[in-house]
Amino acid sequence: MSYIIQFLFGAVIGSFLNVCIFRIPNQQSIAHPPSRCPNCLNPIAFYDNIPLVSFILLRARCRSCSNPISFRYFVVELLMGVMAVALYYHFGFGLNFVVQFIFVSGLVVISFIDLDVRIVPDVISLPGIVLGLALSLVAYFMARDTTELPSPLSSLIGILAGGGFLLATAWIYEKVTGVEGMGGGDIKLLAMIGAFLGWPAIPITLFVASLVGSVVGIACMLLTGAGRRLALPFAPFLCSGAVIFIFFGQDLVRFYLPST
Ligand SMILES: [Zn+2]
Question: What is the Å distance from ligand 1's center to 65 Cα?
Fold first, then answer.
């Protein structure tokens, strides 16, 4: 029963994240006006705004103007439902669950905005860096025995390592090739990942992101015939790496580095 509630909770939050994904790059308020069709601007009735269900019942079309609704709405709601269940299964309910759910919500918004418009929004990543560090302090002082969050020191080193490593790589890449490689947005995103997950997450996230990115990149080149200049958004791969770390990396870290 509780898994069903978690799934529904995740899907409802996913519905809100869809609003953020659409409005943040357009610099619109995420609170006003209420949900409306991006094409005809007609408000969406509450019975047409039920996560997952409405998308299927409406057959992915606006009730007013019949314009297609992006499949992204369904994907994000389903993804957040699944993430809520997975985090609840892994952590049980408590501070760890709440913090990781907030973190994953931020990662989902960043990934889909990057896929959509090739921007990693500073309005998520910069407050995310501060929030990750602040939450590690909260966990350290209020729930030291039960927390799976990084220590404040590990979080701080994570910010510096995440930001610093990519900054150095980007600088060297630019000096050597004369081409701007890694975007500044990716650097702030990795600093945010370091803030929430601690410094041991940085090498593992980078490793997974490069591995998955290479496989997907090669697959895209083969399928589309695009050349080596094919530029994929990197944020979704960094975010996938961070999610893998939440579920599998922390056990590794507990085993190898018990004091972090
Ligand atoms: Zn419409």
Answer: 4
Separation of 22 CA from ligand 1 center, angstroms?
15
DSSP H or E segment with residue 5: helix 2-23
Q: What is the pTM of this model?
A: 0.91
Closest CA to 50 of 26, 77, 88: 77
* Ligand 1 geometric centre to CA of 69 (Å): 9
- Residues 161-202: pLDDT tens digits? 998 877 887 788 888 877 766 668 999 999 999 999 999 999
Distances from the Cα of 196 to the Cα of 108, 188, 256, angstroms = 15, 13, 19
- For residue 97 the two structure tokens come to 């669950």
Number of helices followed by number of strands (H, E) in the chain: 10, 0
**How many angstroms does the Cα of residue 29 sit away from the middle of ligand 1?**
20
Whole-angstrom Cα distance, residue 125 to residue 194?
Answer: 11
Q: How far is the CA of 55 from the centre of ligand 1 (A)?
A: 13
Q: How far apart are CA 189 and CA 183, in angstroms?
A: 10
Task: Tell which residue, 206, 196, 260, 258, has the closest CA to residue 237.
Answer: 206
